[in-house]
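User: Protein kinase domain-containing protein, Vanilla planifolia:
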Amino acid sequence: MYKDKPVAIKIIRSPDDDEDGVMALRLEKQFSREVNLLSRLHHRGVIKLVAACRNPPVFCIITEYLAGGSLRMFLHKLEPESLPLQKLLSIALGIAQGMEYIHSQGIIHRDLKPENILFDENLCVKIADFGSACEEAYSDPLAEDAGTYRWMAPEMIKHKHYGRKVDVYSFGLVLWEMVTGRIPYGDMTPVQAAFAVVDKNLRPTIPADCPASLSALIEQCWASPQEKRPEFWQIVKVMEQFESILAQGGTLEQAQNLACNDHKKWLLHWIQKLKPHPHAHGMGPFAPKLL
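Assistant: Predicted structure for Protein kinase domain-containing protein:
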């Protein structure tokens, strides 16, 4: 409890065998960066920072407590079943809306995965854990503390220049997990998965019973090169359209132009025609915001 409200506490502690203090400096830098970024984010789809405490070698980040648990826990409870389509789209839209806002603030999450997607008591989505996040203007291809291999974009694995589209790649993997109920590359170690993604351009197999329009979106999100991936504001509009069709008793197959049999080409054409939300402008290189 903090000021009579339930909270979650993330503790960052330097290891006892850190004799030269290198790890302590690295962890303190990570703590400062995470607190700085979280303090700038105010959105219903992002976990709320409550307080922070610095007492080397221990650092604490205090956030709101989210009683709904993580998307990973949610999917685990459903095993061996996967999410119903309507629920999948609702969660995916919440994730995309949170990420659209995060990107609009010039921030890359860099570790989007089911463990870092939380729910409140009403099952509203909240993006959490900004320990790997950074300002896009200062993204470092050589950073060692960014991401998790199974959800990591190939340009990050290769330590090449990257931008906010690495989060879109991860979102594609998260969508696939919600469709299948499985962890990506479950028959491989994380390193083997990273090698296969980079050297063989491997992606998980999308089930044949996945709606073609949703399958096309997943493939668009994890496309290489990164320029082929949509922005999150575009994904939000696509998801809103998908939800609208289902709400009217239709199917996702009705989302496509019936004259177009190639779902990938249809989706890409549709995305390119979309107009951004009013707050999604200026999605080029971001200028850092001074606090």
